[in-house]
Structures are given as structure tokens and as C-alpha cells.
Amino acid sequence: MASEFAPELARTAHAWPFEEARKVLARLERRQNRGLAEPGAITFETGYGPSGLPHIGTFGEVARTSWVRRAFALMSGIPTRLCSFSDDMDGLRKVPGNVPNQDMLREHLGLPLTAIPDPFGTHSSYGAHNNARLRAFLDSFGFEYEFLSATECYKSGRFDNALMTVLANYEKVRDIVLPTLGPERRATYSPFLPICPRSGRVLQVPILEWNATRGTIVYEDEGRRSEVPVTGGHCKLQWKADWAMRWLALGVDYEMSGKDLISSVELSSKILRAIGGEPPEGFNYELFLDENGERISKSRGNGLSIEEWLAYGPPESLSLFMYQKPRTAKRLYFDVIPKAVDEYIELLRQYWSLSEDSQRIESAVWHIHVGDPPPDSYPVSFALLLNLVSASNAQDRDVLWGFIRAYAPAADPNTNPALDRLVGHALRYYEDRVKPLKRYRAANEKERAALEDLARVLQSIPEERNGEAVQNLVYEVGKRHGFEPLREWFRALYEILFGQSQGPRFGSFAALFGCRPTAALIHRAVAGELTGVA
User: Fold this and answer.
1) CA separation for the pair 189, 179 (Å, rounded)
2) 116 and 177 in contact (C-beta within 8 Å)?
3) Tens-place pLDDT, residues 89-139
4) Considering only CA atoms, which of 488, 512, 485, 511 is closest in space to residue 501?
5) Which CATH code, of 2.30.30.100, 3.40.50.720, 1.10.10.350, 2.60.40.1940, is assigned to 445-526?
6) DSSP for residue 289
7) Calpha distance 495→246 (Å, rounded)
């Protein structure tokens, strides 16, 4: 387990979660040097806006923050907590395009998310529904966190002291924000948004007076002048002031956020300093893009959902995708799943070949498995399984396991359930994502001659299961028939035999599928049985 590693080892580790954790350790040391009392626990936070369904980026933020939290706990031994905060008191400004009952939601625009009926009909409110979906995913991954609802924090009084602090510094907060706004917005801006006692809507109205002694604000709405307390859920804050207030109220020490929020982090940090707090540590991660290079959005519903990824790949592959290069923009769509799965398999294999703790603690799989990676083995890759499904027309696990056992006799679904799950993912991914896009082509004269030659070679070594040995023979056939560069030869193999332009090492596939069945597949392709054109 992670606790078996010495704190000294963690303090010198270079993996990015340890680099981030050192920021928090330095923050604690600065606090001690100023003679401030040590906190009971270091607080890490993630934020979620449930105006739309939780998307995969939200999961990524919790996962990444959890890795930093665990790294810090290992190097310091200091208690920590992770708050997963939902901004569910925000007023709904527009209706997301990927939820049902659109007309009903439009009727409730402006209401807090927890005051809007659930369009799915399963929870007490729209906000509660989205919160429950997020929590279900976080729980399924085993994250340790404390879930906080903005609605509950405002209404229960948990934020009251911090709200009074903002009110006492009303002018300071307002003057920090005003230069960032346009002329029209500047004329009416207030950090406080009253909740209308009649309609329940979050009001964007000018504030006429504020009184720190009484703890109230005065506003005018539709010609009616009203005075309300800023505490007890009668008001909420504009979100940048809200973010700063939340950091103060919860004592947040670390929070990361997307690159699109850099200016917001800077502004909220200024507000927090103005009301007597210290901004948390953190960094800005790059955003996820869809297959067209456009930013994924929970309101648009582009990109992948967590459910979609987990339908086609194991959870470890999703965790690895989130772990790798958090400061690099990455495209998030279906085609990245097989690559992420095979990268995980390779990193897990490498992990178990490492003998030094100082090497293991740097591995991505050490982090995504909380310091305790499983001893799973994968004799075949996900890419190979996909091509095996294609070549064999397999539609169930038993057929695929027959090929796998022939290739790796020790493999068995009962003793290797992780590989068995991968077989299931491969069958589903092939059926849904690969098969509909296959486009076989006929071989030209040069390719036909080379394929017939390769079939003869493979038939001469029917029992060969060494993928490297087979690959060398495939190279020789390509060279013999004048393919230059050789990648054109392999491209031809995949386009003619599998209806796609690329794939795993062909020698590894032939060794898994069997040299004689691969030769038979080549004969079928040459005869035009795959394309229907001889």
C-alpha cells in the first residue's frame, strides 16, 4: 500500500502529484513561520456546476486532486480532507440540449438548480439529480470525499460568517470586480444576488443599500423595495465573489481548475485577500476537446460521458487518461479509448518489472491504484483483441478465449478476470465503434502477389506463436515485393484484411489468431470475399 513508502521518498519524487503536493507543504511551512495555528486537516476542494449533466472532465478534476491529496498525505503524514462542492444554488440561465423536458426547464429559468423539478423524474430537483449522478460515479471509483451542496451551505448557516465578512468589505470586493466588467454591467454590479421571496428566482438587480451592522442589503425589483439578510440562504454571491467566500469559509488549501478560469482564479484570489484570506494552491489544467478540436461542454453534451468510456474500457484506462499530461490539451472521443487501454496494460507490465520503490512511486499506475497496483497480466493487447474479433467474426467471449488460450496456454478467465473484462469491452467496442466504420478494399496486382506470398509463408509455419518471429517474416515478404517504405505494406494489410488503415503489429496478430487461420483470411481477401469484389 501507499503507506509502505517512506515520506522521504515522496519528498524527492518527480511525478506531478508530488510536485503539486510540495506546494501545499510549502504553504503549511509559511503558515507555521508566521506563527499561525496549524489546521486540523489540509483541505482540498473540487467544484462542479450542476447546470448540466456531469461530464468526464468533472471526474478528471476529482481524480487529479485526489492524487495530489494522497501524495501530500504520504510525504507529510498530516490529515487531509477532500470537499467536492456543487454550485447547485446557481440560477439556471439556459437549458442544456442533452436533457429531457426542455419546455418545463425553460419555464424555470432563473430559479436555483435545487428549486427546479427534475426533468428525469427521479430526484427532488434538477440539481439533486445531477449531484446524485456525480456522486455515483465518484463512489464507483472509490474516491474519499465530503460532498457539499451550495444550497445546504447557504441555508444551514455554514456560510453565514464568511458572508458577513464579504458584506463588511462590500466596497473592496465591488471595486476589485468593477474594472473587469463592461459599462452596462458595471452600473448594476453587486457581489450579492438576492433570492426573490415571491418567485424564488436568483435576482440580478441593483443593490441600493448595504448594512454590515444589520447584515442586510436593500434592493428594488419591479418597483418594489425590499430589505433581506445576506445570511440564511436569502442571498447568494456572484460566482467569483462566491468562490473567494467559499475558500474562506471552508479553509481551502488546494484547488485546481481549467485553463479557461485563469482570470477568474486571479480575481477570486484578489477578493479573498481583500477579505482577509489566503488563496489556495493549485494549477490550471488544459481543457478537453472533442474529435473536432472544440471544447467539451456539459450543456452541449459533446465529448464522451463517463458511462460511454466505461462501456468500452476499464476504469483504469480512464484514470490513466486523466493522469497523463494534465497541462496538455487532449482530444476526448471514442478513438482514444483503445490507445489508453493499451498504454495502461504496458505501464502495468513495466511497473512489475521495477525493483526499486523510488521507481515505482513515479509510475502512473502507482498513483491511479493508490499505491497498490493489481498483479493482473494481459498476454494480449486491446488492439489485438479488436482485430481478433474482426478476423474471427467472434460474437462471444468463449470464441475469443479459445484463441487466447492457444496463444497463451496459462491464460484463463477464472484466474484473470481483468483480461476477461477486457474481452467483453473489446466485443462491445468492435460491434458499436469499429464494425460500422469498416471499409475493405480490394488488393491491386502488386499487393495480391505479396499477399499470396505471405499466405504461403504463414502456411509453412502453422504452429508459430512467437509474434516477433512472425513479424520478421512479414517484413521479409514486404521487402521482397518492393514495398518502400514498409509502412505502405502494413497499411495495405490492414486496409485489405481488416477494413481499416492501421492496427497493432501484424506479426502479433497472426501469432494470436494462428498462422494457418491468418493465411485463410488472406485467401478470402484475395478472392474478394471481404469486399464482395473478386
Assistant:
1) 11
2) no
3) 999 999 998 899 999 999 999 999 999 999 999 999 999 999 999 999 899
4) 488
5) 1.10.10.350
6) E
7) 56
Torsion of Cα atoms, 112 then 114 then 115 then 120, to 10°: 120
C-alpha span between 489 and 437 (Å, rounded): 22
Q: Is the peptide bond before 485 cis (omega within 30 degrees of 0)?
A: yes
478 three-class SS = helix
What pLDDT score was predicted for residue 491? 96
* pLDDT tens-digit map of 357-370: 999 999 999 999 99
State the cell numbers at 341.
Answer: 487501454
Q: Are 71 and 20 in contact (CB under 8 A)?
A: yes
CA distance 492 to 500: 9
The helix (run of H) or strand (run of E) holding residue 161 is helix 160-168
What 8-state DSSP symbol labels residue 204? -
CB 112 within 8 A of CB 202: yes
Which residue's C-alpha cell is 511551512? Answer: 29
List the domain boundaries for the chain.
1-156+286-375, 382-433, 445-526
Q: Give Cβ neighbours of residue 399 (< 8 Å, ≥ 6 apart).
A: 392
Dmax (CA) for the chain in angstroms is 93
Q: Shortest CA distance to 200 belongs to which of 114, 128, 111, 116? A: 111
Q: Which residues, other chains included, contact 473 with Cβ-Cβ below 8 Å and sequence gap of 6+? A: 457, 458, 461, 507
Q: How many CB atoms lie within 10 A of CB 85?
A: 22
CA torsion 94-300-46-320 (nearest 10°) is 180
Measured distance CA(218)–CA(191) in Å, rounded? 13
Contact 484, 492 (CB under 8 A): no
DSSP lists the bridge partners of residue 195 as 202
DSSP states of 408-475 as a string?
-TT--TTT-HHHHHHHHHHHHHIIIIIGGG-------HHHHHHHHHHHHHHHT-TT---HHHHHHHHH
Tell me 202's DSSP state: B
The reported pTM is 0.92
List the CATH code of the domain at 1-156+286-375. 3.40.50
Tens-place pLDDT, residues 399-446: 999 999 999 999 999 999 999 999 999 999 999 999 999 999 999 999
Nearest CA-CA partner of 338 in 310, 313, 316 = 313
C-alpha cell at 32: 507555521
The DSSP secondary-structure symbol of 141 reads T
Band the pLDDT of 224: cuts 50, 70, 90: very high
Closest C-alpha among 38, 15, 145, 21 to residue 76: 21
453 closest CA partner among 463, 443, 441, 468: 443
Give the helix ranges, DSSP H, for 290-331: 306-312, 315-323
Cα end-to-end distance, the chain, whole Å: 59
